[in-house]
Amino acid sequence: MLTDLIGSLSTNPYFGAGFGLFGIGAGAAILRKGLQGGLVLFRRHLMITLEVPCRDKSYQWLLQWITLRGARETQHLSVETSFVQKETGQIQTKYDFIPSIGKHLMRYRGYWIQVERTREQQTLDLHMGVPWETVTLTAFGRNKQIYFDMLEEARQLALTAQEGKTIMYTAMGPDWRPFGHPRRRRPVNSVVLQNGVADRIIADCKDFIRNAQWYADRGIPYRRGYLLYGPPGCGKSSFITALAGELEYGICLLNLSERGLTDDRLNHLLNVAPEQSIILLEDVDAAFISREDVANQKAAYEGLNRVTFSGLLNCLDGVASTEARIVFMTTNYIERLDPALIRPGRVDVKEYVGYCGDYQLEEMFKRFYRQNDNQKIPMATEFSKRVLTDGRSVSPAQIQGFFMRHKTSSVQAVLDSVPEIWEDSLKKNIQKQETVGVSMPLAA
């Protein structure tokens, strides 16, 4: 019976056709699964993929590198507009064409690499306010070194573009972002301080930078704090900018009075500051009042800022404070600072940056009137004597403003115009007093 049934089915054309279709379908399914599995194995063992999200520090470096390497090999582009500052200070608009969203093919060191740039419209980078982007690179082989080389080339390209310039950073959310255009490095000798002040600070900074192992061997926290204090307009901030150029460092500008800045965020920002950068806290006297001065004003003291005084102290010299860090603070009124803030360990070096002395006046005069080499030394001495003849105090900013008004004048005309320094200062004081409704004597 069974043999007869099998024989009848084998001769049935409908059964034969159905079994054939089933066999073809099953074979196709097996083949498809095999191809999928083989493709997974191929990608896993014979291809190497690198994913770079937009929040990674190397993302912008890589985009700029792809702009030079990959944009020439694709016809699907998007524009990236930037602004470049010339040596003269003028701003020039620059257009870069980078591969647009999608897949592109480029060749690097004998490897064909697929570049896939994706953008998620439903996901935003909350700090930048732009859609989340990712660049994925896929190449044949298992050599990871090509990606190391690629990223290093991208980093070097970015460094070359910033060579000879000082980058300013500002805090944006939990991260630091470049602020404005990179500035041409300011020569350190363009800021004239009292004789020896600049040399002492520069020497101390360089000694700190090259002696990291010395700190490690002795278990000393590897960080350095500086305080520059003195009247306004005497060159504190200008010198720090020039110092950053001398050290080839960037500057992280941090405003302690910023609304929304908390102890935790401040500590985080100090810990994630860009490498080779100076953290600058300007006018720290305006952010906090000495605890002795607010003994009867506790509520007012606590309401000044969301960053607490104890929080700042712990960030500078606490258990969780970061190392390999240089912090500069400036103030016009050192007497207003709490002693706990400027003790050793938080502030290691204090330097007074004050009104002009004879050395500063002579050096500034010689710098502005260099074309008169045969006259500048005796004339510089004469200028210094005339300015300091009555024992009055004058800031470098006042002297520079005076020189700027007389940049085309003869040396003798500059000497004869010295009284203008005091006339301008007197006018400003009168205007200031009139603004607040207070009278003042005209006699100096």
Detailed description of the structure:
- The chain is an alpha/beta fold and 444 residues long.
- The protein is 42% helix and 22% strand.
- The protein is built from 15 helices and 15 strands.
- The strands form 4 sheets. The chain has a 7-stranded mixed beta sheet with strand order 9-8-12-13-14-11-15, with helices on one face. The chain has a 4-stranded antiparallel beta sheet with strand order 1-6-5-4. Strands 2-3 form a two-stranded antiparallel ribbon.
- Helix 8 (263-271) links the parallel strand 12 (250-253) and strand 13.
- Helix 3 packs across helix 4, helix 5 packs across helix 7 (236-247) and helix 11 (358-368) packs across helix 12 (376-388).
- The radius of gyration is 34 Å and the shape is elongated.
Largest sheet: 7 strands, mixed
Strand content: 15-25%
Global morphology: elongated
Biggest sheet strand order reads 9-8-12-13-14-11-15
Number of strands: 15
Radius of gyration: 34 Å
| Count of discrete alpha- or pi-helical segments spanning 4 or more residues | 15
**Average pLDDT, to the nearest integer?**
79
Structural class: alpha/beta
Order of helices and strands: HHEHEEEEEHEEEEHHEHEHEHHEEHHHHH
**Ranges with pLDDT <50 over ≥5 residues?**
294-305, 430-444
Residue share in helices?
40-55%
